[in-house]
Amino acid sequence: VLGIFALTLQGLQGAMIVMLSHGVSTGAMFLLLGMLYERRHTRTIADFGGLAAAMPAFGTVFMITALASIGLPGTSGFVGEFLALLGTFQTHPIVALIATTGVIFAAYYMLPMVQRIWFNALDRPENENLPDLSRRELAVLLPMVAVMLWMGVYPKPFLDRTESSVEVILENVERNRGPAFGQAEVRGVEESLEAGVPVGDGLELRGQRTGPTGDEDAREMTVAATRAETRHAD
Q1: What is the pTM of this model?
Q2: SS3 for 42?
Q3: Within a 10 A sphere around the Cβ of 112, how many other Cβ atoms?
Q4: Do residues 145 and 64 touch, judged by C-beta distance below 8 A?
Q5: How big is the CA angle at 58 (ends 56 and 61), to the nearest 5 degrees?
Q6: Span 89-114, mean pLDDT?
Q7: Residue 186: enclosing H or E segment and its boundaries?
Q8: Per-residue pLDDT for 18 more than 50?
Q9: Residues 49, 121: contact at Cβ < 8 Å?
Q10: What interhelical angle do 9-40 and 135-153 show, nearest 10?
Q11: 3-state secondary structure (DSSP) of residue 33
């Protein structure tokens, strides 16, 4: 959301990459948690510990997925978050700095969970003989891991694919904004009133010069004219 409303090339591309990365990494995480539940039939973190020794392949895939979720460099999550924050920094630097703390909080809640499940002591007998990932499970998970690493190491194909669409969006936004009707136009209306020129004529002349393109500009011109007339009457 932050990258989208930054309305910059990097911000919008980052938002698209974040959505794609989030879909892959979160989908893989839910699959892994479901597979883990099928083996232990519990969701309590305290019931696990040291599973990496019993299930090394499972632990490796789980670790890569968790790192992609928190945005570690070299994974898909980092590319999207970095571009979204970079694009936001160009227009709203304070907001970007505040949003950066979200990366810290993500690591704060994700890494302790990984450590407690996979890298504590293997002190529960029921965890010692858990089966590792089967070939069928690997066939499902490995393509998702490959996408997470591919996007993190070489994101250029994904960025090239989205660049033209993002540029069209930005062009439409700029086109629909229209010219601003600000203090300079208000002063022009005041000058017209002081010179005895009717406000309508003054607005018409200013409209021809600035070329308002929509109802919003017309409303702004009306408000400016009303303010100018009020000041002139006072």
Answers
A1: 0.69
A2: coil
A3: 11
A4: yes
A5: 105
A6: 86
A7: helix 183-194
A8: yes
A9: yes
A10: 160
A11: helix
What pLDDT, in 10s, does the model give residues 130-140?
999 999 999 99
Calpha distance 227→222 (Å, rounded): 9
CB 208 within 8 A of CB 233: no
pLDDT reading at 67 higher than 90: yes
Q: Which amino acid is at 148?
A: M
Among 45, 34, 43, 107, smallest CA distance to 70 is for: 107
Residue 228 CA to residue 234 CA, distance in Å, equals 10
Q: Please classify residue 12 by burial: count the beta carbons closer than 10 Å to its beta carbon, then call 0-12 exposed, 13-18 middle and 19+ buried.
A: buried
Sign of CA dihedral 168, 173, 176, 179: negative
- Model confidence pLDDT, tens digit, residues 138-177: 999 999 999 999 999 999 998 888 888 888 887 887 777 6
Rounded CA-CA distance 112/211 in Å is 59
pLDDT at 212 over 50: no
How far is it, in rounded angstroms, from Cα 123 to Cα 9? 51
Whole-number pLDDT of residue 167: 82
CA 154, CA 118: separation in Å to the nearest integer?
Answer: 29
Averaged over 81-99, what is the pLDDT? 86
Residue type, 38: E
Spell out a b/e string for 55-94, using b for 16 or more CB atoms within 10 Å of the CB, else e.
Answer: beebbebbebbbbbbbbbeebbbbbbbbbbbbbbbeebee
At 195, the amino acid letter reads A
State in Å, rounded, how far the first CA of the chain is from the last one: 46
Question: What are the phi and psi torsion angles at 117 (to 5°)?
Answer: -80, -40
